[in-house]
Amino acid sequence: MIRAVLLWASRDPWLGRSLPRRRFVRRASRRFMPGEGKNDALRVAENLKRDGINAILTLLGENVASPEEVDAVVEEYEEVLARLEGSDLDVQISVKPTQLGLDFDARLALDRILHLASRAREAGSFVWIDMEDSSYREATLCLFEQAVERSGPEYVGLCLQAYLRSTEEDLERLLPLSPTLRFVKGAYAERAEVAFSSRKEVDEAFFHLTTRVFAADGAVAIATHDSRLVARLRRWIDDHPGTQFEYEIQMLYGIRPEEQVRLAQEGEPVRVLISYGPAWFPWYMRRLAERPANIWFVVKNLFRG
Ligand SMILES: Cc1cc2nc3c(=O)[nH]c(=O)nc-3n(C[C@H](O)[C@H](O)[C@H](O)COP(=O)(O)OP(=O)(O)OC[C@H]3O[C@@H](n4cnc5c(N)ncnc54)[C@H](O)[C@@H]3O)c2cc1C
Question: Model's pTM, two decimal places?
């Protein structure tokens, strides 16, 4: 129930305009977002590096409505990539297709992905394509397929959601491209026809999808804070000695930071996704929806202020 309300709030335009102006909401959001500018995000990336953790930067925002807004997003990512050139940071970027114009011009979105992939290659970086709600699934798969066909699989990867019933089939469709994939459980409110609703089914799907990529010698990002799932996958890897699996564990900034450091200290490759930018409200509501206990954080900040 609380989850449904928070996901509804993430889409409500009035709340999206008024709540971010409240100081206590802004303060509470700092737990998951170091600030609104790329300097804030890059500063955190430098700190993480000291703990042996790499980073991904993502500019918050989705569903842009004009080519001018797409240009502004691309310019921001170009500036991030320019800052990485010659630096010793291992930082990638992650983009939402609707942030690059997928809602109104799929060719523009593809063109901008290819442009960012080419800039990422020059900067020694990499571009992840996020997966948004299931209404964008097919268009996003096509975008990724075309990007890989045109630029190769080395500089662009795709996020797939384990909660979607269709993901197993999508994975088989993509495997011939030797893709780099990120598996997540999935963050949107989806209908039971398209998505598994029980946690057990989602976790099983996550495990099977990941091991399927391992069996096909593919590269995979295990993007979850679920320690039991990570431990199960690590056991599966240990049960296959002599085989090198290409993977890393990805988590979000501010969620289980002690676990991120612990895994890195154990020698696991860990990468943390740092979100930043002024358009943080819908994204923040989705983080609260994942774990309604986080609302206490907002309430505590209300009383602190
Ligand atoms: C790098 C990365 C990229 C992502 N990209 C996408 C994407 O493109 N599309 C998409 O739909 N989703 C994306 N997600 C979000 C993902 O779908 C999940 O919603 C999110 O990761 C939470 O699920 P979980 O796998 O951690 O498992 P859960 O079972 O939800 O959580 C496991 C444990 O982690 C902790 N935890 C999880 N979430 C929170 C939280 N918000 N606050 C505090 N503790 C928490 C809790 O201890 C919980 O018990 C991404 C996640 C990551 C890490």
Answer: 0.92
Judge whether 182 counts as a catalytic residue: yes
Tokens 């799932």 correspond to what residue? 229
Residue 52 CB neighbour total at 10 angstroms: 15
- Residues lining ligand 1, Cβ inside 6 A: 130-131, 159, 161, 184-188, 223-226, 250-252, 255-256, 273, 287, 290-291, 294
Mutation pick for ligand 1 pocket among 93, 100, 135, 185 (CB with most ligand atoms within 8 Å): 185
- Condensed to tens digits (0 to 9), the pLDDT of residues 182-212 reads 999 999 889 999 999 999 999 999 999 999 9
170 is annotated as an active-site residue: no
CB atoms within 10 A of CB 28: 23
Distance CA 291, CA 51 (A): 26
Local structure of 222: helix, strand or coil: strand
CA–centroid distance, residue 133 to ligand 1 (Å): 15
Name the residue at shortest CA distance from atom 43 of ligand 1. Answer: 255
Delimit the domains of the chain by residue range: 1-32+293-305, 34-279
> 12 CB contacts (<8 Å, ≥6 apart)?
none
Q: Give pLDDT tens digits for 7-51.
A: 888 788 777 777 777 777 777 777 788 888 999 999 999 999 999
Three-state DSSP at 185 gives coil
Q: How far is the CA of 68 from the centre of ligand 1 (A)?
A: 31
In Å, what is the CA distance from 286 to each residue of 5, 102, 154, 204? 10, 21, 30, 23
Specify the CATH class of 34-279 in words. alpha beta
